[in-house]
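Same chain as my last thread, 385 residues:
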Amino acid sequence: MRRTVFNEDHEAFRETIRAFIEAEVVPVYDEWFAAGQAPRDFYYKLGELGIFGINVPEEFGGAGLDTHKFEAVLYEETSRAGVQFGGSGVHVLLALPYIKMLATGDQKKRYLPKFVSGEEMWALAMTEPGTGSDVAGMKTTAKLSEDGTHYVLNGAKTFITGGVHADRVIVCARTSAPSAEDRRFGISLFAVDTKSEGYSIGRKLDKLGLRTSDTAELAFVDVKVPVEDLLGEEGKGFSYLGHNLASERWGIAFGAYAQAKAAVRFAKQYVQERTVFGKPVAHFQNTKFELAACQAEVDAAEAVADRALEALDAGELTPAEAASAKLFCTEVAHRVIDRCLQLHGGYGYMNEYPIARLYADNRVNRIYGGTSEIMKSIIAKSMGL
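reply #2:
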C-alpha cells in the first residue's frame, strides 16, 4: 500500500536524519546505554541540525512550520536504527506546545531562541509520587508572595523524562485548593529555572527500558519562581494540560507503530542470517507465518497512526480518536515485538541485540501518557457508555 502522508521534503529530512544517526549516534550508543543517558552536548547537535526549531516561528530562529510530520519521520528513523535521542522528545513534543499556546510575547523572546539552539532543554513535571494518572490529586503548591513578585514552590515530582539535563521545567502546581464542585480547580503552570535555589534533582531513576532517556525525581523547597514565569492564567492549568494530551498520545501511538515496524525488520534480517538444523530460520513455515502475521498488524497500525497524524495536523484529532490510536498502536507493538523477539531465540534476550532493547523500551507505551485502561475509559465515554 502506497503511503500518502509524507512528501519530498519529509523524505529529504529522512535521508538527513538517517545519515546523522549513522554518523553521530550508532557508534556511541552503547556508551549512552551504559551511562543511562545521552550526553548533554548531544542536544546542541540536534539544535544545530534544526530539529528543535521545526515548529518554532521564524522570528525566534525556527523554521516556522506547523506540522508533526517531521517528528513522525524521527520516530521511524530512530526506531529503525534501534536508538533514541535521549530526552529530546519531551523537549519538542510535550514542552513546545505549552510555550506556543501559553507564553506571552516577552516570554517567547526569552524562551524560544534558547529552546531552538538546545541551550535550554525543557521538560514537563506533572506526575507526583502516589498520584499517577490522577493529575487533580497533586500536592505540589505555589503560593504568591506578599509583595506579588514571585511564587514560592514546594513539593515533589517523579518520572520526569529529561529531568536530569533539563534547564527549564514546566511544573504543574496548586495555586489554590480544589473546590468542592471541581477538584481540578486551582492548578497552574510555571516555567521553572532549574538553577533556582531550593530546586533539586533526586534520583536518576533506574528504568526497565528507555535507558538513554534520563528520568528523574524532582524536589522543590521554597523555590522562588518570578511571576514572569507563570504560563497562561493562574488556576487554568488543568484545562491547558488536557488541550495537549491528544498530541502527546498521538506521539506515543506513532512511536509504538514505528517500533513494531522496526521489530519486523530486525527479525526478518536475523532469521535470514541465522541457521538451525542446516537451514536458515527463515526457511521454516512457522517463521514465515509469524512474520507475515506481524507484518499485517504493522500495516494496520501504520494506517491508524497515519490517519491520526493527518487529523492532528489539521487540528481535528479528538481526545477519543487519540486514545483509540494510542490503545491500538501500543497493543499491536506489544504483540509484534514479543513475537519478533521469540524468533531470535536466546539471542533475543541479550541487550546487544536491538530487539531486546526494543522489547524493554516498548513496555512503557501502555502506561505513560495515560494507561491503556484510561484510554478504554475515554473511548467508552465517547461511545456514550
